Amino acid sequence: LDGSLPGDYGFDPLGLGSDPEVLTYFQQAELVHARFAMLGAAGIVIPGLLTKAGILSVPDWWVAGEVAIKDSGIPFWALVMVQAILMGWAEIARYQDYKKPGSQGDGSFFGVTDGFKPVSNGYPGGLFDPMGMGKGDGLKTAQQKEIKNGRLAMLACVGFVAQHAATGKGPIDNL
């Protein structure tokens, strides 16, 4: 680790980043997990706040998925299969882009991939960057902020789960 990556402070006591190819994979994995954790933390806190304020009436985060499909009339395994197919397509495309950076915009899947030219590996461009924020001097700062907030969100999600396991309540109810 030489400080060139976002969030890289040179701390690697186990030497996990000594192989450059493995380090690139770990960087992409951390980025994906950070993004999911940021969405997850927001998806736990915001509905909890809005329910507490009386604006929404939604189930607690630890039962929301069960409640949503229980009375929907959609068979559970059909939902699992559709989710697996859709996420499988997205994850295969992401993995291919990791192996061959820039390949997201190559070819066409019924015109779906035409606007997916990435700014760099892990940072989509085209349709996903309509305001051009992935270009210019602010990109490094934005990447640094994203990984710092993502690491914080990963810790927050672990804390939410631990808090629920210990108290049976969510983060808003424990304030």
From TrEMBL:
Coiled-coil residue windows: none
GO cellular component, one term: chloroplast thylakoid membrane
Gene Ontology biological-process entries: photosynthesis, light harvesting
GO molecular function: chlorophyll binding
Residues involved in chlorophyll b binding: 35, 80
Subcellular localization, as worded in the UniProt entry: Plastid, Chloroplast thylakoid membrane
Positions of chlorophyll a binding: 30, 33, 145-146, 149, 151, 163
Spans traversing the lipid bilayer: 36-56, 76-93
Main localization of the protein described in the UniProt heading: plastid
InterPro entries (UniProt xref): Chloro_AB-bd_pln (IPR001344), Chloroa_b-bind (IPR022796)
Alphabetically ordered keywords of this record: Chlorophyll, Chloroplast, Chromophore, Membrane, Photosynthesis, Photosystem I, Photosystem II, Plastid, Thylakoid, Transmembrane, Transmembrane helix
Task of the protein: The light-harvesting complex (LHC) functions as a light receptor, it captures and delivers excitation energy to photosystems with which it is closely associated.
Entry's family note: Belongs to the light-harvesting chlorophyll a/b-binding (LHC) protein family.
Name of the protein: Chlorophyll a-b binding protein, chloroplastic
